[in-house]
């Protein structure tokens, strides 16, 4: 649960609407997105370090500098370094939370 968060009403829409999210701005100045992905394959670029947590469904990810894909299911997470790219495959759907890390 995110208390005292400000939510941007306008959705972030990617890949012809197959990936959507809403941005929450937390009291401490950090940002979090709550998103949903439909079936498909996607590549995302990062500016900040990201912690992605799957809240429903599953996603298969190929992280930077790794050679094998990893399936991440409900309540599991993975970390993506800042200034990198990662690939995602969705078989059915994935509901997720993305935490943008401002400090290590």
TrEMBL record:
Q: Which GO terms describe its cellular component?
A: cytosol
Specify whether Glycosyltransferase is a keyword of the entry. yes
Which UniProt keywords are listed? Glycosyltransferase, Transferase
Q: Origin, by domain of life? A: Bacteria
Describe the reaction catalysed, as an equation.
Answer: cytidine + phosphate = cytosine + alpha-D-ribose 1-phosphate; uridine + phosphate = alpha-D-ribose 1-phosphate + uracil; thymidine + phosphate = 2-deoxy-alpha-D-ribose 1-phosphate + thymine; inosine + phosphate = alpha-D-ribose 1-phosphate + hypoxanthine
Q: Does the keyword Lipid metabolism feature in the UniProt annotation?
A: no
Give the EC class as a word: transferase
Q: Which Pfam families match?
A: Ppnp
Q: Which GO terms describe its molecular function?
A: purine-nucleoside phosphorylase activity; pyrimidine-nucleoside phosphorylase activity
CDD domains xref list: cupin_PpnP-like
Query: What's its EC?
Result: 2.4.2.1, 2.4.2.2
Q: What does this protein do?
A: Catalyzes the phosphorolysis of diverse nucleosides, yielding D-ribose 1-phosphate and the respective free bases. Can use uridine, adenosine, guanosine, cytidine, thymidine, inosine and xanthosine as substrates. Also catalyzes the reverse reactions.
**Stated family:** Belongs to the nucleoside phosphorylase PpnP family.
- The protein depicted here goes by the name Pyrimidine/purine nucleoside phosphorylase
Q: Which gene encodes it?
A: ppnP
